[in-house]
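Subject: Tripartite tricarboxylate transporter substrate binding protein BugD

B.,
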Amino acid sequence: MKNKFLQCVAGAALMVFAAVAPAALAQSAYPTKSITMIVPFSAGGPTDTVARLIAQSMSADLKQQILVENVGGAGGTQGANRVAHADPDGYTVLLHHIGMSTAPALYRKLPFNAVEDFATIGLVNEVPMTIVARNDFPAKTLKELIDYVKKNQDKVSYANAGVGAASHLCGMLFMSAINTQLTTIPYKGTGPAMNDLLGGKVDFMCDQTTNTTSQIKGGKIKVYAVTTKKRVPSLADVPTAQEAGLPGFEVAVWHGIYAPKGTPKPVIDRLNKALKAALKDETVKLRFADLGTEPAADNLVTPEAHLAHLKAQIALWDPIIKKAGAFAD
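Prediction pasted inline below.
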């Protein structure tokens, strides 16, 4: 009887091991194929630029290709929704910006929960923004810009990359700060908006340094200020909004990487390891510097810190957006 009991126990243990081992082995071998990184905005924009830099470096560490796919629309919510409902196997991830924290307040019917439907992997960077205008815009300084738009608010056009985009949020705060409503022209991404600014079809916008630095340095657009407390090294001659006459005006765009909720912890840990390696890659650091940004601090490149930051940003933006009455269907 004792021998039969031991045989039964051993058999049950083998059955459990047989069921668990393949999954464990699959996770430990991850990744075994290419990974899709969804960018919820159009190609050529600032978030797309960050994603492609990070994806290339992470691919080297993972020894599998990360393929960037642009799924734009609805202020980034379409791409995010696709990842929220993807298989939680680590082969579909999302690189999103500050819009993950503003979407809960901006959209009355959001098809996902920004906190509950995702597994955070780590923060990537924080990007300053710049207030820029077409090259032949009359105003020469930020004070002159503010005076001009107040006097000509029905004639001045402000471009943004669509509801929920960083340029939309920055513009919303700018209009609130100067107590003036302007004609806004939404585009399907920052790339098209910048093209029309370069072509003189719109007057001004507020956009990330990752999208404006090369245009500013090339003398193709006017720049009035950066939106951070300190000046940006790559644009050292450009004053902060505070210095230029708009006290308390600060906004920066942060990026983070997400996986669908339920993605196994070993997979999250492996992606986090690759992200940390990418942010220490000298090529990435130098390219970030050229674009006016820098990698996130080490203590922020963890799933836990990323989640805490996301929750804090949701709490910060919720009352601001509701007060402005900036809602989307």
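Strands lie at 35-39, 66-70, 92-96, 118-134, 157-160, 183-186, 204-208, 221-226, 252-260, 294-295.

T.
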